[in-house]
Write a structure and sequence with these properties.
This protein is an alpha/beta fold. It is built from 13 helices and 18 strands. The protein has helices spanning 3-21, 47-66, 90-102, 115-127, 162-174, 192-208, 226-235, 245-258, 276-279, 281-284, 307-317, 326-345, 350-358; strands at residues 29-30, 33-40, 70-72, 75-85, 109-110, 132-134, 150-152, 183-189, 211-218, 239-243, 265-268, 288-291, 300-301, 305-306, 361-364, 367-370, 383-388, 391-396. The protein has a four-stranded mixed beta sheet with strand order 1-2-4-3. A four-stranded parallel beta sheet has the order 9-8-10-11, sandwiched between helices. A hairpin with a 3-residue loop joins β13 and β14 (305-306). The chain is globular, with a radius of gyration of 22 Å. The model is unreliable at 1-26 (pLDDT under 50).
Length: 413
């Protein structure tokens, strides 16, 4: 290639980069189809939850398209999502976000799975001023960075196990004990999400003066908790709390039974996603499982109907599910926010759509969605479910409860 051609090539690339970094851009629209982009964990350690999220995204796209699509400028558009597999690796996720924006021309993004992947991708979408609505990154530290283009439909991570601490205090006082006498054992994977959950547990435990007798940070890819559970058996805490994504929940279920851990209250994140009731039914009876959403809650919208209606439709669409993971429900909710924002903006200008997202205040089957200035959803509470006779039932907060809590949990092993 001649020197002149090289210079022209460099100049052309620079011009393209300048346009990408300039002000408002238009969404990628192919004919009558709006293309959204997502780097998602379809392989690797987060693949189970990545698939749940993809199923949730796709169900919402299907439903919106069936109901007339997205109306902008007097025209109806269908939604379509372009995916890349981030292999559950943050560096790969950031690389693919760059590819979606720079090479594929995607101007509107759906989030990846996990706080770690979201932390890797958010600086990329922020750099190019690309709005991203995410449903799977709950770490509160995501919303302390001053991002303008990041919005999350889910409750932040410090709230996940707060209900278990409050419930333990209520049960203690009801049984004539002081909440300050409760002993807690904690096991958390050393990743951003789980460490934020841990911080929330510590804060709530301090409010009641509870004693933390085990505080273990476990390696990522959590596949062995035996050392922690040996301490739990020796110290006999009143409550065991565990957070380690799907693999952590499965590991806890398997080893709690193998080691015959008799702790009267056990609270674990990601129960549904790990399908613990199907794989370890005897081990998990009585477990408390925080959830962003439950099919018994009284939320509804015009697209899916009630929470129960969504639950039914999801199971009909994806017949392998016995229960709907909240990861799927919140993914569907994120797509609903995109539709609502496009239509209120009545434009594909990224800044106008970004401002419409920021002004969101809508009720969905998943709950109310309203964003703070930081971008997190401040309108929807977490709820706590207990596994009773192999089924998930809401036991806290009391105003949402469908069943009373069983305490102590029933030991079946």
């Amino acid at each position: 290639m001649s020197r002149l051609k090289v210079l022209r090539s460099v100049a052309s690339a620079s011009a393209i980069a300048a346009v990408a970094l300039a002000g408002p851009a238009m969404a990628k629209v192919e004919g009558d189809t709006i293309i959204l982009g997502s780097a998602l964990s379809l392989t690797g350690k987060y693949s189970t939850n990545g698939k749940h999220a993809q199923n949730g995204y796709e169900l919402a796209v299907k439903r919106i398209n069936e109901m007339g699509g997205v109306k902008v400028g007097g025209k109806s558009y269908k939604l379509k999502i372009k995916y890349y597999d981030d292999e559950s690796t943050p560096a790969r996720g950031a690389q693919l976000a760059e590819r979606l924006i720079q090479q594929d021309g995607v101007k509107f993004m759906l989030g990846p799975y996990s706080s770690g992947l979201t932390k890797a991708i958010a600086p990329v979408t922020e750099k190019y001023k690309i709005p991203m609505i995410e449903a799977e990154g709950a770490s509160r530290s995501l919303f302390t960075q001053g991002y303008r283009y990041l919005f999350a439909v889910l409750s932040t991570s410090e709230q996940y196990l707060a209900g278990a601490i409050q419930l333990a205090a209520e049960i203690a006082e009801k049984n004539g004990r002081k909440a300050s006498n409760i002993k807690i054992a904690m096991a958390f994977e050393n990743d951003p999400f789980s460490l934020d959950v841990r911080a929330g547990v510590i804060e709530d435990a301090k409010k009641y003066g509870m004693k933390i007798v085990v505080d273990d940070k476990l390696p990522r890819d959590l596949s062995d908790m035996s050392a922690t559970l040996t301490k739990v058996k020796a110290l006999k805490p009143d409550l065991l709390v565990v957070s380690g994504h799907s693999k952590g929940a499965a590991t806890a279920a398997r080893q709690v039974k193998e080691m015959r851990v008799m702790t009267p209250m056990v609270a674990v994140t990601h129960c549904e996603a790990a399908q613990v009731t199907a794989k370890f039914p005897d081990a998990v009876e009585g477990w408390l499982c925080p959830t962003q959403w439950a099919e018994t809650l009284s939320y509804s919208d015009e697209y899916f109907g009630s929470a129960a209606d969504y639950d039914k439709l999801f199971k009909q669409t994806y017949s392998s599910y016995k229960s709907v993971p909240y990861q799927a429900a919140q993914a569907s909710a994120a797509v609903l926010v995109w539709k609502d924002a496009f239509e209120r903006a009545n434009s594909f200008d990224t800044e106008k759509v970004r401002d419409a997202i920021a002004a969101t205040d809508m009720m969905t089957f998943y709950g109310r969605i309203k964003f703070s200035e930081r971008g997190n959803n401040i309108a929807k509470p977490m709820v706590l479910r207990q596994i009773q006779n192999g089924k998930y039932v809401v036991v806290a907060p009391s105003k949402w409860a469908s069943h009373p809590v069983v305490y102590p949990r029933k030991i079946l092993y």
